[in-house]
Design brief:
The complex is a heterodimer of chains A (250) and B (306). Chain A has 250 residues and is α/β, with parallel strands linked by helices. Chain A has a single domain, classed as 3-Layer(aba) Sandwich (Rossmann fold). Chain A contains 9 helices and 10 strands. Chain B is mainly beta. Chain B has one domain. In chain B, strands 3, 4, 7, 10, 12, 13, 15, 17, 19, 21 and 22 form an 11-stranded mixed beta sheet that branches. A 6-stranded parallel β-barrel of chain B has the order 1-5-8-11-9-6. Chain B starts with a helix and ends with a helix. Classes of the chains: A alpha/beta (250), B mainly beta (306). The interface between A and B is medium-sized, with 24 and 22 residues. The complex binds adenosine-5'-diphosphate (ADP) and magnesium ion. Magnesium ion is lined by residues 44-45, 87, 160 of chain A.
């Protein structure tokens, strides 16, 4: 179980101090599938970075299974089973897809880590020896990023807009895959998304806007409340994505 | 006889764990200590100056030549001239490399001058590793000078590696390419402490459809300094690509001055140069997979220099 207690985040930006998240209180249960949604700039990625330890809260506490992890760094949280698939994953010159997956899975992982590529719709033979560099398309990179999380045994798996650059048909299959995979380990899944299709898979929806939790509840409760805002964000997102489809989807 | 130190250095610079198969010449502290020629590859000492001639018969395929150099004494200044004749249509691997174990406080220096004649349609892969170690304060200095002549349709791939331990290096590489010749130079360098490294490359594309690619990747740590000066000159319809990529850390300094010059309107030449720190996002990503910050950094550098 993951708990955020009165968590706030302010960042010293170029234009002075900005409050990005304000008094967030959330309890996220094991084996549940949460989707966080809300307008761009609302603070969703910042919340994910807080959970991973990339950002430190200005005030408040973060608890994982009763342990206070607020002061733990990224590595320590990763080793406790927190994973985060970046909205914009970095590229690495000279690191192959296979090496990255091996780093994710850890030294003693059983089996061939490259099989996780199947789950994200990439052919392992075609991809495992390629470098995770600029030669990959945005969509390929996002899929590999997802595979690095699938390869791990996680308590909390955070996916930040995983659908970007991935066509809807294969994404539907993908969501089913990680649902099934994480169920095995009792993982709490948190997906940040604007995609109606992903929202409909959620056990619970959380709406973040202006740095606060605007709504939280089951689909049935939340759906009517947020339909307007989501509809708006989603159509904008779909237009953005239309340019992004020039990738191989075998 | 080879000592344990000699063997370790051979493993570092030439991936050799025992006496190699095929042709080889092992030079130690300014003298040839072991040599072997084969039916197709002859190695003989020069008569007028220190060094060897390596003659690969035309059509020789799939054979290798190892010519490592070891320096294990201080106060030594070794100068050697090696000439390679790679006969028409041959396809060989040449593993050079120099390792210095400097036990004392005086300088140990090796200056290798290599000249290659790669005849029509021949192929050569050349791997040169430089490595230094030693307890003392004595400087370890390596100044290789490499000159290549590529005849029509000849191909050469050079892999030049210097990872740690060499205090001072000035590398000079020069090549002339005739029609349809192809040259790839891949350079990997890591300097640290107060080391200084300079690499000067001049490639002249004289023949029609000659092509070349220079890929330089380097990491500069601590207070070390690096200078890269790759130049490609196009005298004909030809293609050239130069790419210098450096990761800079601590208080190091890196200069990259690529130059391309076209003296023909069908010469297509491109250069790219980039110097920057390790991206913070890369470190964060690997830490989020459970690596420590130090492990993350090492993983990134290792990949970059692979
Ligand atoms: N490191 C940062 N420095 C300054 N401002 C930031 C930083 N990270 C996020 N922000 C700001 O915080 C707000 C929320 O950003 P983000 O969490 O990325 O939103 P979302 O993921 O919901 O689109 C935005 O206004 C963004 O510009
Ligand atoms: Mg975001």
């Amino acid at each position: 179980m993951l708990e955020l207690k009165d968590v706030s985040l302010t960042i010293e930006g170029e234009k002075g101090t900005v409050e990005i998240l304000h008094n967030i209180n959330l309890t996220l249960e094991d084996r549940r599938f949460y989707v966080i949604t809300g307008p761009n700039g609302g603070g969703k990625s910042s919340l994910a970075k807080l959970l991973m330890g990339i950002y430190r809260p200005t005030s408040g506490r973060i608890m994982l299974d009763g342990q206070d992890i607020t002061d733990l760094d990224i590595t320590e949280r990763a080793r406790l089973g927190v994973g985060y698939a970046f909205q914009q994953p970095p590229r690495f010159k000279g690191l192959t897809v296979k090496e990255l997956l091996q780093l994710a899975a850890g030294k003693n992982s059983p089996g061939n880590v490259c099989n996780y590529l199947f789950d994200v719709g990439l052919c392992p033979q075609d991809y495992q020896d390629r470098d995770v560099d600029a030669s990959l398309s945005g969509g390929e990179l996002k899929r590999i990023e997802i595979a690095t999380l699938l390869a791990r045994k996680l308590k909390v798996a955070l996916y930040d807009e995983p659908e970007a650059g991935i066509d809807l048909w294969s994404f539907g299959r993908l969501t089913e895959t990680f649902k099934a995979l994480h169920k095995k380990n009792g993982t709490t899944i948190i997906i940040i998304s604007h995609q109606e299709r992903i929202l409909s898979l959620a056990d619970e929806l959380i709406m973040i806007a202006d740095g606060t939790v605007r709504e939280k509840g089951t689909k049935e409760e939340i759906w009517p409340l947020i339909m307007d805002e989501i509809g708006c964000v989603c159509s904008k997102d779909c237009i953005e994505r239309a340019d992004n489809n020039a990738e191989c989807n075998r | 006889m080879l000592s344990a130190i000699d063997k370790r250095i051979l493993a570092q610079v030439a991936d050799l764990h025992e006496i190699p198969q095929g042709a080889y010449n092992i030079r130690k502290n300014g003298m040839g200590v072991q040599r072997n020629s084969t039916a197709n590859i002859e190695i003989k000492a020069k008569e007028d100056k220190p060094g060897i001639d390596i003659i690969v018969k035309p059509g020789t395929k799939g054979e290798s030549v190892h010519i490592p150099v070891i320096l294990t004494a201080e106060g030594l200044e070794d100068m050697v001239y090696n000439t390679f004749e790679i006969g028409e249509g041959a396809d060989v691997l040449v593993v050079a490399g120099c390792g210095i174990h400097n036990p004392g406080s005086e300088k140990a220096e090796h200056n290798g001058i290599h000249e290659f004649f790669i005849r029509k349609g021949a192929r050569m892969r050349y791997v040169e590793k430089h490595y230094g170690e030693g307890e003392g304060t004595g400087k370890k200095v390596l100044n290789p000078r490499t000159v290549l002549h590529l005849e029509e349709g000849a191909t050469a791939e050079l892999e030049l590696v210097q990872i740690r331990g060499v205090d001072n290096t000035k590398r000079y590489t020069e090549a002339r390419l005739e029609r349809k010749a192809h040259l790839v130079i891949t350079e990997r360098m890591l300097t640290h402490g107060d080391q200084y490294a300079e690499s000067d490359i001049l490639i002249e594309l004289t023949g029609e459809d000659a092509t070349t690619q220079v890929i330089s990747r380097s990491v500069a740590q601590d207070r070390s300094k690096q200078i890269f000066y790759p130049r490609v000159v196009g005298q004909n319809k030809c293609r050239g690509h130069v790419q210098c990529d450096a990761i800079i850390m601590d208080e190091a300094q890196v200069r990259a001055i690529p130059e391309i010059a076209a003296n023909h309107s069908d010469a297509q030449l491109v250069h790219e140069a980039a110097i920057g720190k390790i991206a913070g996002e890369q470190i964060i990503k690997l830490m989020s997979l459970g690596l420590s910050e130090k492990e993350a950094e090492e993983t990134i550098l290792q990949g970059f220099l692979k």
